[in-house]
Amino acid sequence: MTERCRIVIVGGGHAGGRLAQLLSRGPDRVHVTLVGAEPIYPYERPPLSKGVLLGTSGLDDCVLWKPNDPVWERVETHLGVAVEDVDRVRKNIRLSDGKVIRYDRLVLATGSRVRGFPVQGSQLRGVFSLRSYADAQTVSKYFLASNRVAVVGGGFIGLEVAAAAAQRGIQPRVIEASDRLLSRLVPRLVADRLAETHLHAGVQLTYGAMVERFVSNGHGSLKRAVLSNGDAVDCSVAVVAVGVEPEISLAIGAGLEIDIGVITNEQLRTSDPNIFACGDIAAFWHPLYQRHIRLESWQNAEDHARILAAVLLGEEVTAPSVPFFWSDQYDLSLQIMGLPHLGTSTRRKPTASGSAILLHCDALERLVGATAIGPTALIGRELRKMRQLIASRAICNSVTLDGAELEVVAG
């Protein structure tokens, strides 16, 4: 790239914010504009369900752009406004405040939105979802005056909310529609270990039920949640954590190719050569797995920002990392490397007491993923080894794994 280039990033979340930061360190001929729907500068989301809910972290602990970073001088920002339309012919976007911005290269980094939960009473004060810093701040304030909270959904976010509530002396009750926690995400052995930890911390776990309605106290605030199994849960706060969906409405309106997300190649280019997609919305080609995948994680946002900055600046592009995800709850860390759901068999690697490491192998006995739970330092070391083995398509046997005897376990 030698001519002046106007790069417009739509989305002020982690992927978009990090990309703007990396591009701001490029040559002066690159002009970067970032448009964000939230009225605050880009920030990381993992602390929202951890430190922010615990009351130990604030916005300064989450923001991506630090003082004295060139991003402040080099990036034009439009915050608190939405993009209403993409005109691919004229190569411009139209904002909700009426402004029209031209682009040479457009990046869609619109992230995810919480999945709808249309039950009676969902509009009551005290019923929340958790997606933004403002959401987390409000829930944290409600925790101060609450002694019971209902958490709808036993996935990662729901469990982190429950852990934060329990650590603040509030009694949480998790309502999960499946017969166990994290039913589509981790093996039963890991889910059971996590459930034991939550029960020990005072969290109540209800399986095989859903919230049918929220009941008012007569003044517009939440009083209780009524479940499909007939139970009634007294609570002044309910956090609905039933998952998220990629925010692809803008991409659909622009006529881009869509499947599980916005389809891109390995370099995150969409079906329009001047438009790119990154972060949660991108269904990108992963060379290791030889398929399009879509990921929602801190690591994926970092990877995509790095890859796309190199592409847009004409620099050498490296391959995407082996996927990685983590969740911290109490003194436990749950970490996932690779894509365990591609495995057809699961084996347990011997580890120290209090931890478990499960290896996921495909039909050709190649290691495609690993799931670990235990103290952060211990399992972190082990999974760093697994990253290299997964990347090299290593065969999952005791020779590859330093002579360790592997135990076959049920998924």
Explain this structure to me?
It is a single chain. The protein is of the alpha/beta class and 411 residues long. It folds into 3 domains: 5-113 and 245-313, 3-Layer(bba) Sandwich (FAD/NAD(P)-binding domain); 127-242, FAD/NAD(P)-binding domain; 331-409, Enolase-like, domain 1 (2-Layer Sandwich), CATH 3.30.390.30. The chain has helices at 14-23, 51-54, 59-62, 71-74, 133-144, 156-167, 188-200, 249-253, 298-313, 376-391; strands at 5-10, 30-36, 75-79, 83-87, 92-95, 100-102, 105-108, 112-114, 127-129, 148-152, 171-176, 204-207, 211-216, 222-227, 232-234, 237-240, 244-246, 262-263, 275-277, 282-286, 291-293, 324-329, 332-338, 345-349, 356-361, 367-374, 407-409. β4 and β5 form a beta hairpin. α1 (14-23) runs parallel beside α9. The N and C termini lie far apart (49 Å).
Shape: globular
Give the helix proportion (percent range): 10-25%
| Order of the strands making up the biggest sheet | 22-23-26-25-24-27
Name the beta content range.
Answer: 25-35%
In total, how many beta strands? 27
Search tags:
23% helix, six-stranded antiparallel β-sheet, 411 residues, FAD/NAD(P)-binding domain, Enolase-like, domain 1, 10 helices
Q: Short description, anyone?
A:
The chain has ten helices and 27 strands. The chain has helices at residues 14-23, 51-54, 59-62, 71-74, 133-144, 156-167, 188-200, 249-253, 298-313, 376-391, and strands spanning 5-10, 30-36, 75-79, 83-87, 92-95, 100-102, 105-108, 112-114, 127-129, 148-152, 171-176, 204-207, 211-216, 222-227, 232-234, 237-240, 244-246, 262-263, 275-277, 282-286, 291-293, 324-329, 332-338, 345-349, 356-361, 367-374, 407-409. The strands form seven sheets. A six-stranded antiparallel beta sheet has the order 22-23-26-25-24-27, sandwiched between helices. The chain has a five-stranded parallel beta sheet with strand order 3-2-1-7-19. The chain has a five-stranded parallel beta sheet with strand order 9-16-10-11-12, covered by helices on one side.
